[in-house]
Amino acid sequence: MVALTTPVKSEGQRQRPRADRGPSGHTVARPGIGWALPAALFFTLFAIVPLVLVAVLSFASWNGLEAPRFAGLDNWTGLLHDPVMIKSLWLSVLLTGLGVVTQTPLSILLGVWAAGRQRNRAVLSAIFFVPLLLSATAISVLWRALLDPNFGVPAQARWLFGDGNLLGSRTGAISVLVLVATWQFTPFHALIYQGAARAVPEVLYQAAAIDGAGRVRRFFHITLPQLRNSIITSVILMVVGGLTTFDTVLILTQGGPGTDTSISAYYMYQKAFREFDFGQGSAIALLLVVVATVISLIVVRISGYDKMAGTKEGM
Predict the structure, then answer these.
(1) Which of 28, 96, 134, 210 lies at a CB distance of 3.0 to 4.6 Å from 242, suitable for a disulfide?
(2) Which residues are CB-neighbours of 75 under 8 A, at least 6 positions away?
(3) Distance CA 104, CA 108 (A)
């Protein structure tokens, strides 16, 4: 009788990783670090270097003409005791939160709806995505004309808008900023959800239909869980975009009425380019970077996004 034995693999053979193979069966080598050098160089020159210069300038006093002078922590202590700065930071967080609350459900519903393959949905989606083709400046000018209290829509419907000066009160101005941001950025986030919804395996919906699940139940028990990663990504983009919004406030409200819409990015512009205090302007800019980074990390941490493993690693 011949004993059948299995060859024992050595330690090195057991730990040797399997080679990645392409569709044709040939070995596919992972991209080398040279592929990342152009992007890394671009990011270093136009992101890291300016950020370092702003950080250095936040500890200096500079009016843009004379040589910068080291000021220690004067710019930072000045911000801590500046009531307008504290208010502007709170307004930035408020507008960002309102943007997330309004844009997220609208984007999900429109994105999932647009994921359908019917011809009428494709046409309506193309029309709805028109704001993506416009710049923020053009959109702000458009809405400023539409909301003009003398010649715009409020002037023609005073029974609904009262005196028509929506930008003349704090509540009205903030509501207009949220409305314009929702109209401008919802198509972008809906596009993210549209692609994610089309990537959901059809077999999940077929199995749910066999079990008798209706459309609403399939949406909450299949579509939403499958969109989790996209929701986290979209929220992070909203947070970063909301905290750095500037041109819309500059054109629509100019920080008014008074300082009721003077968000941190606009206040940075006032300090640097109107009062020529580039030291404090740099401190505000650096503070915005820190706040946006911290909030994004909190979102990632709470959602558990940092613990998720990709399935396309190395490709």
Answers:
(1) 96
(2) 58, 59, 60, 61, 279, 280, 282, 283
(3) 6
Which token pair is 263? 């968000």
Question: Which of 128, 77, 58, 96 has the alpha carbon at shortest distance from 243?
Answer: 96
Q: For residue 23, what are its two tokens? A: 């569709």
User: In 10 A of CB 307, how many CB atoms?
Assistant: 8
Mean per-residue pLDDT pooled into runs of 10, the chain (315 residues): 46 47 59 85 93 94 90 91 91 94 95 81 79 89 91 85 85 93 93 92 91 90 92 92 90 90 93 92 92 86 67 47
Main-chain phi, psi angles of 243, to 5 degrees: -75, -20
Contact at 8 Å (CB) between 168 and 257?
yes
Judged by DSSP in three states, 69 sits in strand
| CA 243 from centroid of its chain's CA atoms | 9
Which tokens hold the place of 7?
């060859």
DSSP output for 15-46: HPPPPPB-TTS-B-PPPPGGGGHHHHHHHIII
Report in angstroms the alpha-carbon separations of 58 from 70, 77, 314.
9, 11, 40
What is the distance between the alpha carbons of residues 205 and 226, in angstroms, rounded to a whole number?
A: 12
Distance CA 141, CA 24 (A): 55
Question: How many residues in the chain?
Answer: 315
Instruction: Kindly list the structural domains of the chain, giving each domain's residue range(s) and its CATH number in brackets, ordered by start.
Output: 85-305 (1.10.3720.10)
Tokens of 74: 């004067």
Q: Which phi and psi (to 5°) does residue 58 adopt?
A: -70, -15
Residue type, 291: V
